[in-house]
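> forwarded from #structure-qc
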């Protein structure tokens, strides 16, 4: 009896082992594929080439933190929008298109990202002496902090002072008695003359800078206010339009209004 009992146990054990082996074999049959056949059925995707200074890089140039990537306007005397550029700015222009935007600097008070008021595709005004020049995909570009961008052009097909929005704590002003004579919009470098105009009329106002809680601090000025500002506070970018001269000034350098 003991022998028969032991034989039954052995038979039951062998039956279970063979059954599991059959199940595993059926489960793994799907990987029984010829490697050559698998390789032939797949194709590698050809990666898009990106270049910096004519050297191929492994991926797109991506700004970090508060930085943005701008492609400079390639115009000669005029842009496609009819903006006339002075001879001295043919190589160092003040207008460009935003290609990429970082995620924003870290606010050390709360650990959150500080928002950037600039988006991909925006046409912006900037000082070409700021930032870091780079030749990206055969185009002259600039990596620059978003806070160094002076303003946005709302409609690149019609560029005039009323179509420009200053950024952050900047104010766009029309200088009073600048002694200019021009019927077209011409962007010119900052004057080296010590007798700078320090009075102006507010044309457009930025929406303020962010405080430590990432809330906007409004600017205590209104459009059409007359102001007095520090003679060395403008942002090295002046332009004329219909016999009037304009510039950007940071609100912190506005000393009084009237």
């Amino acid at each position: 009896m003991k022998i028969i009992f032991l034989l039954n146990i052995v038979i039951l054990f062998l039956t279970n082992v063979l059954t599991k082996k059959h199940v595993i074999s059926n489960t793994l049959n799907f990987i029984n594929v010829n490697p050559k056949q698998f390789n032939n059925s797949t194709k590698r995707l050809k990666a898009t080439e990106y270049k910096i200074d004519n050297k191929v890089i492994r991926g797109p140039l991506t700004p970090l933190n508060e930085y943005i990537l701008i492609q400079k306007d390639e115009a000669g005397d005029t842009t496609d929008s009819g903006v006339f550029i002075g001879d001295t700015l043919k190589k160092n222009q003040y207008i460009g298109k935003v290609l990429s935007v970082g995620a924003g600097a870290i606010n050390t008070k709360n650990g959150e990202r500080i928002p950037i008021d600039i988006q991909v595709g925006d046409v912006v005004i900037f000082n070409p002496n700021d930032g870091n020049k780079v030749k990206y995909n055969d185009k002259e570009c600039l990596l620059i902090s978003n806070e160094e961008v002076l303003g946005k052009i709302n409609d690149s097909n019609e560029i005039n002072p009323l179509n420009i929005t200053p950024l952050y704590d900047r104010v766009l002003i029309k200088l009073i008695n600048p002694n200019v004579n021009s019927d077209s919009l011409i962007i010119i470098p900052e004057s080296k003359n010590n007798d700078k105009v320090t009075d102006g009329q507010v044309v457009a106002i930025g929406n303020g800078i962010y405080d430590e809680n990432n809330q906007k601090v409004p600017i205590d000025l209104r459009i059409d206010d007359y102001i007095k500002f520090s003679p060395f506070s403008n942002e090295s970018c002046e332009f004329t339009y219909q016999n009037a001269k304009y510039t950007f000034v940071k609100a912190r350098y506005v000393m009084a209004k009237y």
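QC bot note: The first helix runs from residue 2 to 28. The chain has two domains: 48-158, 160-179+192-257.
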